[in-house]
Amino acid sequence: MRWEAQEQAEQVAGLFGVTGLVRSVRTPEFAGMTFHEVLAKSALNRIPKNSAMPFDWTINPYRGCSHACVYCFARSTHRYLDLDTGADFDQQVIVKVNTPEVLAAEVAKRTWSHGLVALGTNTDAYQRAEGRYSLMPGIITALAEHATPFSILTKGTLLRRDLPLLARAKEDVHVELSMSIAVHDDDLQQSLEPGTPTTAARLATVRAAADLGFRVSVFIMPVMPKLTDSREHLDSALRAIRDAGASRVAYGALHLRPGAREWFFAWLERERPELLPRYRRMYSRSAYASKEYRTWLKARIDPLIDAYGLRGSADDDYRATKWKRTEAVGELANPQGALF
């Protein structure tokens, strides 16, 4: 086994073309997954100064994501590692094992700006790998101890493990928590997001955070035409979100960048072939849903949001509203980023 691990590490190091790889790990409790442990040179990724993003920095301790959401916009980032945007993105996860230590050193510098730091802009910091590596407690502690405000966007219920720590951090710095819950139909959710916690478990996490005094936002992103945009689906979703104690909702129509587009279309062909022609037409010229569809969606969902007291951001382009920018940015602006 040791020889096999060493041989794989050498192969992956050659694949990535870097010297930061420590080892590649497979364990029975994560069947089908390979974790490539690397040493990061930097934990913080700077957002360009001319960007309209509502944060200044991002941290992504993982690359690739076991949530395996077929629509994930970050899939294309795996191409920069010579890995594919489909199964490799779901199963070959890069773990920046020294992120807490590197971050602590960066935010301790006298020159540190204390700008808002966002987690969850590319891949989920509370995906299943976090249960093995426990990088987030060190990240949270480093940010809080150095007066750095931060936000977390996740689909992971492992967030509950860190809620006491986050509550303590909130006493000293601004902390924003957001939960992404795009699908409120159990069978559809497991088909579209096979590696994610259930919708009920995520709603319970929202409740746990709200009970600790957090004003939790819920992202209904993406809304998918003819899959999750019916009035019944949206009404049921918003009612459940309100009952879970969330403070606000943000929503956005599905966008399909290269990498995600091919993987999502393959899912449609397998699971909902009757919708494939419609999607091909809608996304034939752009990664974004048509203006007409976004206008229609706004007219459908906004009255429901108001009725449930969950005023969120309207879907008027991912680059034009605070909450959609949070989902769409991250290392995608510089896909190679500060990986190692």
Keywords:
340 residues, alpha/beta, TIM Barrel, 7-stranded mixed sheet, 4-stranded mixed sheet, 11 strands, 14% strand, globular
- Sum up the overall morphology in one term: globular
Structural class comes to alpha/beta
- Could you give the distance between the termini? 26 Å
- Largest beta sheet: strand ordering: 3-4-7-8-9-10-11
Integer count of domains: 1
Over the alpha carbons, how many angstroms does the gyration radius reach? 20 Å
- Helix run count: 13
CATH superfamily: Aldolase class I
Tell me the major beta sheet.
7 strands, mixed
Residue windows where pLDDT falls under 50 for at least 5 positions: 1-7, 312-340
Pfam family, one: Radical_SAM
InterPro entries: Elp3/MiaA/NifB-like_rSAM (IPR006638), MJ0683-like (IPR040086), rSAM (IPR007197), rSAM_sf (IPR058240)
Keywords: Iron, Iron-sulfur, Metal-binding
Protein name: Rv2578c family radical SAM protein
Summarize the structure in words:
The chain has 340 residues and is α/β, with parallel strands linked by helices. The chain has one domain: Aldolase class I (TIM Barrel). Helices cover 38% and strands 14% of the residues. The chain has helices spanning 2-16, 87-91, 99-107, 129-133, 136-145, 163-170, 186-192, 199-211, 231-243, 260-271, 276-282, 291-307, 322-328; strands spanning 21-25, 34-38, 45-46, 57-59, 62-63, 92-96, 117-119, 150-154, 175-180, 217-223, 248-253. The strands form two sheets. Strands 3-4-7-8-9-10-11 form a seven-stranded mixed sheet, with helices on both faces. A four-stranded mixed sheet has the order 1-2-6-5. Helix 3 (99-107) packs parallel to helix 5, helix 5 packs parallel to helix 6 (163-170) and helix 9 packs across helix 12 (291-307). The two termini are 26 Å apart. Residues 51-292 form the Radical SAM core domain. Keywords: Iron, Iron-sulfur, Metal-binding. This is Rv2578c family radical SAM protein. Pfam families: Radical_SAM. InterPro entries: Elp3/MiaA/NifB-like_rSAM, MJ0683-like, rSAM, rSAM_sf.
